[in-house]
Design brief:
This protein has 267 residues and is an alpha/beta fold. It contains nine helices and 15 strands. 36% of the residues lie in helices and 21% in strands.
Length: 267
């Protein structure tokens, strides 16, 4: 039997799998159809306000039966890095409580004193304040590393958009006069490298699926993976002319993935 050259799908969530609390039409059938054919799925999110297991549970509530180890977010990549290389580092977190707990569980020492901080981490923080900005700024002035979970300026809500983690990172960066030393979310490839460790597959056998050129498709390029752009979210077909790079495939919806895979098998 002929097989598609892709053995795993790395799928974006909002705008690709769901819009808020509603699944994109046909996504459950596509997931089940390709899963039965041995295609493995991982779901990726830049959201670091919570941890990957919480996101997995939210996907299950939407109606797709996924396991916790099928979800990665920018916090996953950050926590993996701390656990592997920075245990015992003193980390000042501008972020939500679940991220703080995840970093502490990974071996970081959560720090409030900017004078002894090794790393400043910025993420979405719904209680962001001048005091938090000041502490982060002082820590960076005294030589701390500057890490950001992601640089998304906004995130979608049912009635529009709200300021995202990137807006907070930008505030800290503006005061510091420099950008983050490291960013863990898309389009940076850290989540892709972690996905490859989990899947035990080469990059050329993975297909990134998403609705944004500047995050999902660029993420695929940075990770040397193929990409499929879906037109159910932020990008229209006419928008493609505005970019100097292009996806490998353009499909109307993630529901059309089985047809794409069938076409690839025929070739």
């Amino acid at each position: 039997m002929k097989m598609s050259r892709y053995r795993a799908i790395l799928s974006d969530l909002d705008g690709t799998v769901n819009r808020g609390n509603m699944l994109i039409e046909g996504v459950r059938a596509a997931y089940e159809d390709l899963s039965k054919k041995g295609i493995r799925w991982l779901f990726l999110s830049n959201n670091a306000a919570t941890l990957a297991p919480d996101i997995a549970r939210s996907i299950v509530r939407l109606g797709i039966r996924v396991q916790e180890d099928q979800v990665l977010n920018s916090a996953s990549a950050l926590i993996h890095t701390v656990k592997r290389d920075y245990r015992g580092a003193r980390v000042l977190v501008v972020g939500e409580a679940k991220l703080v707990q995840g970093l502490e569980d990974a071996g970081a020492i959560i720090e409030q004193d900017p004078m002894v901080t090794d790393i400043v981490v910025t993420a979405l923080d719904t209680t962001f304040s001048y005091e938090k900005l000041k502490r982060a700024h002082v820590a960076l002035q005294h030589g701390a590393l500057f890490w950001a979970t992601n640089l998304d300026s906004t995130y979608p809500v049912p009635d529009g958009f709200l300021p995202g983690a990137g807006s907070i990172a930008a505030s800290v960066a503006c005061a510091a006069g420099r950008p983050p030393d490291r960013v863990f979310g898309k389009p940076s490839p850290d989540m892709a490298f972690l996905a490859l460790e989990l899947l035990h597959l080469p990059a050329n056998e993975c297909l990134v699926v998403g609705d944004r050129m500047e995050t999902d498709v660029l993420f695929a390029r940075n990770a040397t993976m193929a990409s499929a752009l879906v037109l159910t979210g932020a990008t229209s077909r006419s928008d493609l002319r505005n970019f100097g790079y292009h996806p490998d495939h353009v499909i109307p919806s993630i529901a059309d993935l089985p047809d794409l895979f069938a076409q690839l098998e025929d070739h």
